[in-house]
Every structure is written in C-alpha cells, then in structure tokens.
Specification:
Jelly Rolls; globular; 9% helix; 315 residues; seven-stranded antiparallel beta sheet; 33% strand; six-stranded antiparallel beta sheet
Length: 315
C-alpha cells in the first residue's frame, strides 16, 4: 500500500508545476495535466526488455567520461542515440569557435557544465553561458559558440535524431553520412518567437536555495524538457514499486544537483552524481526520484513529446 501511495504522489509531483518566475513559464499554455486516465486499460509492453545498444547506457558517469578524455581539449562523447533524439557531451577548447550553422526543423538544447561559452544566435543579443545555464537555440537560426574561458568549455547537447546541421556559406560543411551539401535558398525563414526562454541561469535561480520546482524549460511538439527539483525522499521505495514505463519512447535525464536514484527494470537501484546521465530504455519499468543522500536534488528529463504517456501499475 505504501509503495502505491508513493507512486501516486510521485506521479502528481511530476505533472503539477510549482510556482516559478515568468522567465521559465513565459506565456506558454500549460501542456501538462494532473488528470489520471479515467480507467485502467491494456498497454503494449515489449515482451523482451529493450536492450541498451552503444552508446546508450543506463548510467553514464561524468567522472568516467572526463577520465577517458584526460589531456584532451576538444572532444565529443556520444551519450544517447534513439529513434527521436541524440545527445553528446562536447568539450570545446579555450578560444575555439564553432562553425556557423543551424538546424532545419528542430531546436537544439544544451546545458553548460564547465567553462564559459559566448552564444551568438542570429537575431538575438549575444550572451555568455556559464556552468548551469540551460540554452535553447531555436530552429533555423544560425548560431556560433565560442569558449571565452581560459579552460575548455563543457556542454551536454541534445538534438533531434538524424538531423544534419546546415551551414552558412562562409563555412566549409563537415561531412555528414549519406548527405551531400549543396547551395540553396530556403523558405520559410527563422523560427518565430515563442514563449520558450532563450536561456535559464540555473545557478542564479536555484543554487543554494530552498526552492522546489516542477515546471518546464522548453516545450514544443518535438521536444520536452522539465526542471524537477525537490527535497530528499524520506526513504528509498522497495523494488516492488515499479514506477511506470513508456510505450513508444526512451526517456533520459541530466542530473543537475544532489543525488537522483533510479530503479530500472532488470537492474538494481543506483544513485547518480551531478553531471551524470541516466537512461530508461523504451518499455522498461523505471522509477526516478530524489535519493535520501542529498538535501536537495534536481533532474532534467528529455522526451520527444509533450507529455508522453506514463503507464503505472493498476490500482
């Protein structure tokens, strides 16, 4: 009974945004709902557990990623590859600037984890993003990133799967498998303004505060990302508390703060550190929450639809 109450409370906490500044919520119409489905139903769960195919892992530890690239300044570590989204950890050396590029139909989101990055997006005022910044680059906006710190910058970047970058004519495009770059003139133009913020300074807004939060960072019909911050759980639920699964999509999280614990079907409960990534493969039961080992914890989930269906155990 206790496990069911915990699950119900967890579900509500995920779906009901808490008070936050307009910088986060903007004027977006609220897209989440606290209403449970009115009746139980048969859900299509994979007969065999979805395997983790490289580079996908249940848990990427930042400490291990950094150790594997020790002594390097410019590197890319593939982290997530699924049907809808891909994500990498990317290090860019001091003084380096990316090629001027854009993406055709989907935004790019990244979280800065070290160093300082000057973000220059066509039509926007340039700004410098430091550790903890969430940055949202709208589609069809040319942009460049420049490391302005004396040490390499490090960012966790999420993009639509299989979407090649498009480059300004002043650049030489990087090779992309199965594609040939040709000169074109495009229409329609850059993405129109929406209420998704260009950036959020997490450290300024939350670090060291007693502020719980459960609202969104960016939402559109192909991209969903929330900021979920709360106090430590009193205890870790038993393994019999399965959580939920998603029929069509994989869900992954960036750990911003504290200790997030997760139980994924077929694996023991494990905890994460800030900068780590955890990944629940499509169709696997999973239960993520704030571990008792830290007073406050924050996770940032990434999903390709707003919101994806959560399939819980029937009452």
């Amino acid at each position: 009974m206790k496990s069911k109450l915990y699950l119900a409370a967890a579900a509500m906490a995920l779906l009901v945004p808490m008070a936050a500044s307009a910088q986060f919520l903007g004027t977006n119409e609220e897209k989440t709902t606290s209403n449970a489905y009115p009746q139980n139903f048969w859900s299509a769960k994979p007969t065999k557990m979805t395997p983790y195919v490289a580079p996908n892992r249940p848990h990427w530890k930042l400490s291990e990623i950094l150790a594997s690239h020790k002594g390097q300044t410019d590197w890319v570590q593939p982290i997530v590859r699924n049907r809808e989204q891909e994500a990498d950890y990317i290090s860019l050396g001091a003084g380096k600037v990316t090629k001027k590029k854009m993406y055709a139909d989907d935004r790019v989101v990244f979280i800065v984890w070290d160093g300082a990055i000057k973000v220059s997006i066509d039509g926007k005022e340039p700004f410098t993003a430091t550790k903890g910044f969430f940055v949202n680059v709208p589609f069809r906006h040319m942009y460049t990133l420049e490391t302005t710190s004396s040490t390499p910058s490090l960012r966790f970047e999420v993009r639509a799967a299989g979407s090649p970058p498009l480059y300004a004519l002043t650049e030489t495009p990087d090779a992309y498998p199965g594609r040939t770059y040709v000169k074109v003139r495009g229409t329609p133009g850059p993405a129109k303004e929406d209420s998704n913020p260009l950036y959020v300074d997490y450290m300024k807004e939350f670090n060291g505060s007693e502020k719980a939060y459960g609202g969104k960072f960016v939402w559109d019909d192909h991209f969903t990302s929330n900021i979920l911050r709360g106090k430590a759980a009193a205890s870790v639920p038993p393994d019999t508390a399965l959580g939920h699964f998603h029929v069509d999509f994989t869900e992954f999280w960036f750990i911003m703060e504290g200790k997030i614990g997760i139980k994924i079907e077929g694996m023991p409960y494990f905890t994460t550190e800030p900068g780590d990534i955890m990944n629940a493969a499509q169709g696997r039961w999973h239960r993520a929450g704030n571990d008792p080992g830290a007073p406050w914890s924050t996770r940032v989930p990434f999903n390709p639809r707003p919101p994806i269906l959560h399939n819980f155990e029937p009452e």
